[in-house]
């Protein structure tokens, strides 16, 4: 990732394109962390339960696609190397989330969202713009995104059947990571976003969650 910090804009574009394709083709560069669901046993779930869990996991997977777009956009336009490097570590952890949620969807006999390319491009554009406005705002954008993701995860954890230990273990680990990503962005100098921006972000996340539950 240091490579990204020192490379030319054209090189960065190639790396962003590579990451984008890996994200959308379910082949992300993951860390060596194990999938938390591998250490818990599977349970019997009804077809109706599986369908609902798959809807929730599809939303979470698309959220990770968006996170990847956001971080990649910022890596193109972030002003300082320090910010880029810090955000790159978070982006790598988002890749683990991508893989874990995609694998869980497959185990449930379901699929990732067909709308992922659309949301990826939108998030990439937002991340790029946030980076252009300035590092403290782009970090503020990350902090707010992560906070909103944590709220979603908490809501989904409430909705999961208690017996679905596999999905629970994944979402709990993700929640822990997202909280740390938010803290990291704040410690790196994030500014608190204006309320109107936060509301717009909530609105766009509603569009994403309502559509990807189904498609
Ligand atoms: Fe994540
Ligand atoms: Fe995150």
How is this structure best described in words?
The chain has 215 residues and is mostly helical. It has one domain: Ferritin, core subunit, four-helix bundle (Ferritin, Up-down Bundle). It is 76% helix and 0% strand. It contains eight helices and no strands. The chain has helices spanning 2-6, 9-24, 47-77, 81-107, 116-133, 135-159, 165-187, 195-212. Helix 3 packs parallel to helix 5 (116-133), helix 3 packs antiparallel against helix 6 (135-159) and helix 6 (135-159) packs antiparallel against helix 7. It starts with a helix and ends with a helix. Residues 67, 90, 94, 146, 177-178, 181 line the site of one fe (ii) ion (FE2). One fe (ii) ion binds at residues 64, 67, 94, 97, 174, 178.
Helix/strand/pairing category: mainly alpha
Helix content: over 70%
As for the number of domains, it is 1
Radius of gyration: 17 Å
Report strand %: under 5%
CATH class: Mainly Alpha
* CATH-assigned fold name: Ferritin
What are the defining features of this structure?
215 residues; mainly alpha; Ferritin; disordered N terminus; binds fe (ii) ion
Task: Characterize this entry briefly.
This protein is an all-alpha fold.
